[in-house]
Structure formats: structure tokens, C-alpha cells
Design a protein that fits this description.
By secondary structure, the protein is an alpha/beta fold. It is 32% helix and 19% strand.
């Protein structure tokens, strides 16, 4: 009979967040998860920072302006802790849908009042939290609110279909990140994208198609690209001028979700600017066919020439050790300040005293003889 590579129905959710509203965005996400699951999707992908929003105001306002600072504060207040109550709601929705869910969130570091990560959360069809990926390098305005993640969250999660990976926005064009995911053996890769790019660049949908096809070509995985979109509530809360508002309402500004085969062919999408769910049937055996030609993490590479190392250790900025102090500091001869070298001198004094006592005992034994 041999090995089996099943066909998996996947979904890319294209929707607008309930802008800077954690509870509203979570409720909307859970509704969309259950809808996609009811339509047979086994993998459901969401846009970047869907809960509660992506910091797109830096595309339109100066970083130090009053409105940017106010919106950044609201972002922190509405961000998600992992684990936390919002994650519990998502786990319940994934269990109801019987699907793997990859959700974009703005993650809040527990017990802090200012540290955020741009994160993908992976949840299994049984509701288990499978892992997370924190974007390694914040892009453009994200750097004002997001900290970069570390190598401890750069890995595939294991599913019943094989390894599944995810990267966020610009990471999907990082050659080393692409190779790391390829070497992890990814079969289904999720790209999470915001609702629009900076106004000075090309429309986001162009980059989404190019990067999705390029990643599929290199990894030979199925690629699900989930893009955000814009609604009137977001435009109002951004407080942009007429020109920016016109751009945000343009059909070319946002959206563009696609699903791409291991042969780098777009099989579903691109979507327009509308909200909706994009579906595709993914025959995983096509990955075998493609890798027999080019397996860049196997036979079609040269490990004696090219090597990539990934550091999965997360550095710690603060550690506490419970160790008793060896000796109190001795006072200086003038009695005014402690001697920095007191422990060393005290130890030397004790050793000298022991040697002196040993010599005295030796002389006493000699006299007796």
C-alpha cells in the first residue's frame, strides 16, 4: 500500500479586524473559524495581527504624534496574552471546527506594561495550543511597538498531515527563514499579511502573489496567504485625511489572499478587497512530485558547501540566583568604608592562621621528643 499523502481542504480568511477591540476581534475570529470548519476546512489561516489590529497608523501619521501614541496605547491595552482568555476562546472554536487554526495576534508579554510581539498562534483540531511564532524582525512602523522574536519560536508544528509552518509578512521573502522552513519539511505553509502596505510602496497584493509563488517554488509546500482588509470603522478610527481615505477605499489597496500549489501555481484567488473565505483542496502528493525534481533541503543541495544554523535558545535579560553570601564585608582600618577585597583577605587570614597553628603544634611535638 505504501505511504499516503491525503488531500486537505484549507481556508484563507480575509477579513478586517474589529479595529483595536480585542473582545470584538476574538468573537469575529471564532465565528469565522466555525464557518470555515462547517465548510470542511481542516486548516484555517488568518491575517497578521488580526486580534486586535495591525499598527497601520504609522503609514499615515508621524511616529511621535498624539494620535499615533494614543492608538499604540490602545493596541497594548487590547493585546493578547498566551495563554489567556482569548486563546481559550480560539481553542474552543478550533475544537468545534475540527480544524488547525493559525491566528495572527498582537501578543503582550505577561507582567509587563509595554512589550509586544507580532505573533502567529497555532491551535490543533482538538483545541490544543500547538505553539506560536513571533516575527523575528519587525518591519517599518512595527518597530515602534513590536519586539523581535527569537529562534525558540522558529519551527514547524506537527500535524496529522505532516509538518506545518508559518511566517509573517516580510519574513516570507527572507531567504534564510524560507530555507529554515524548507529544512523543517513543511508541507503546508501559512503566510499572514496585514490589510495594506505603506503608501509609498507597491500595492500589497502584488507582493503577496510573488512571495507566495516564490516560497512554494523553493519549499515545494502548499502556501496559504491570508490578507487583511479595510472597513469604514478602521478608516474612521485612523483619522486620516481625504487622500489617505481614498487610497484605503481603493480595491487595489488591500486584500489579495491566495492559495498556491507546490508547483508554484495559484489555485485559488487572488481575492479582491472584500471580506470572505478562500478555499482550496490541497493534494499533498503534489509535494512529492515537486521534490523529486528539487528538494533544496535534501538531494538538490550541497551540505558540504552550504549550511544554515538556527539558534533556538531564547536569551534571558534578567535572572535571579538564590545563593547565600559567603562572608560579610570587613571594615577598612579607618572604620569608614567596607573593604571590597574583604572576602579574599578574610580567607587568606584564616588560611594563614591554620598554617601558624600547624607550625606551633609541630614545634611542640619536636620539643617533647
Amino acid at each position: 500500500m505504501g505511504d499516503k499523502y491525503p488531500t486537505v481542504k484549507v481556508a484563507a480568511v480575509q477579513a478586517a479586524s474589529v479595529f483595536l477591540d480585542r473582545e470584538g476581534s476574538t468573537a469575529k475570529a471564532c465565528r469565522l473559524i466555525r464557518e470555515a470548519g462547517a465548510n470542511g476546512a481542516r486548516v484555517i489561516a488568518f491575517p497578521e495581527g488580526f486580534i486586535p489590529a495591525h499598527p497601520v497608523w504609522y503609514h499615515h501619521h508621524p511616529a511621535t504624534s498624539a494620535i499615533s501614541n494614543r492608538l499604540a496605547t490602545e493596541l497594548f491595552k487590547n493585546s493578547v496574552e498566551i495563554p489567556g482568555p482569548e486563546i481559550e476562546q480560539l481553542r474552543s472554536a478550533a475544537r468545534d471546527a475540527g480544524a488547525y487554526v493559525v491566528m495572527g495576534v498582537c501578543e503582550k508579554m505577561p507582567n509587563t506594561m509595554g512589550t509586544l510581539f507580532n505573533t502567529q498562534v497555532f491551535i490543533g483540531p482538538d483545541g490544543r495550543l500547538l505553539g506560536k511564532h513571533q516575527k523575528l524582525m519587525p518591519t517599518v512602523g512595527e518597530r515602534l511597538v513590536h519586539m523581535g522574536g527569537f529562534g525558540d519560536t522558529l519551527a514547524a508544528v506537527q500535524t496529522e498531515f505532516g509538518p506545518m509552518t508559518g511566517l509573517i509578512c516580510g519574513e516570507n521573502s527572507n531567504p534564510l527563514a524560507i530555507f529554515a522552513m524548507t529544512a523543517e519539511g513543511t508541507r503546508i505553509h501559512v503566510m499572514s499579511w496585514p490589510n495594506h502596505f505603506p503608501t509609498s510602496g507597491d500595492p500589497m497584493r502584488n507582493r503577496v502573489s510573488v512571495d507566495s509563488q516564490a516560497f512554494a517554488q523553493m519549499s515545494k509546500a502548499w502556501v496559504i496567504s491570508a490578507c487583511g482588509t479595510v472597513d469604514e470603522d478602521m478608516i474612521r478610527k485612523l483619522e486620516v485625511g481625504p487622500e489617505a481615505a481614498k487610497l484605503l477605499r481603493s480595491p487595489e489597496c488591500c486584500g489579495g489572499s491566495v492559495i498556491v500549489s507546490p508547483g508554484s501555481r495559484i489555485v485559488a484567488g487572488p481575492m479582491g478587497a472584500e471580506e470572505g473565505i478562500l478555499y482550496a483542496e490541497c493534494n499533498l502528493e503534489l509535494g512529492v512530485l515537486a521534490k523529486l525534481r528539487h528538494d533544496f533541503a535534501g538531494h538538490y543541495n550541497r551540505p558540504d558547501i552550504f549550511q544554515l544554523q538556527v539558534n533556538r535558545a531564547a536569551p534571558l535579560i534578567y535572572t535571579v540566583r538564590d545563593e547565600p553570601v559567603a562572608l560579610p564585608l570587613a571594615m577598612a582600618p579607618d572604620g569608614r568604608s567596607p573593604r571590597r577585597d574583604a572576602p579574599r583577605l578574610a580567607g587568606a587570614a584564616r588560611r594563614g592562621a591554620r598554617r601558624h597553628d600547624a607550625r606551633k603544634r609541630a614545634r611542640a611535638r619536636h620539643k617533647k621528643r
